[in-house]
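Human: If only I could read backbone structure tokens as easily as an amino acid sequence. Take your time, and here it is.
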Amino acid sequence: MKNIIILTHGWTGSSIFAALFGEAGHWLGSQTMVKPDYDTFENAGLVALNDRILQRLLPGLNHQHRFSDQDVQDLARRATAIDRQLCREFVAACDDHRPWLWKDPRLTWTIRTWADVLDLDQTAFLVLTRDPTQGWISANLRRHIQSFAFTRAYNDGVTQSNLRFLEERGLPHLRLSFEDLLLDPGGTLAALNRFFGTTMALDQLHAVCRLPLYRKSRDWKDFVVAAMIYLKNFHERDGRGRHAALMTE
């Protein structure tokens, strides 16, 4: 099996997908990042290096609350002048456990930096997205105060940037949404198995997914709560004052 890199804007169920691939035999790292309520299954070493790259080349960027394609291009341009020996050493360490899987939303900004030290012929890509309304609910429930327009523009901007990278390099990829997995788990597992050469089954999905299947993860009650949070914290919303701050400028 090939190594796998998941490219996503976040809150796309990527942790469930990563855990699922872990069940299938992909190495997720000697240590993964854990949030208060769940394991992200993000390789802690990858996250640390991505943070280091962002801090050096795009200091001050709050990637969870802002997206601009110009930032992506600026980082890629500046990265050509830095020594990537630490990146090469990290890839070599991961290759000792291949097949491995990387998942970190910061990869949207850093993937072009990593691409020059990866064996792309031995790497497969999964692009994950989310239904815009479901994404907006999840963002606000986690106190990322966003208008629906901001959520959609941010998520679309990240997705288009990731697809552009893959298309520019001619790299095959599979694009799925979180809702594909939840609403049609059997069909989605079949698509994953065909593309990545895995043999994942429904019992493995049940082992890593605590959410009920055959329905969306957020319902109208979640929408009402998210709307109340948004309205109460309207003055703190992302993108206020300069809407273009998150767009592809």
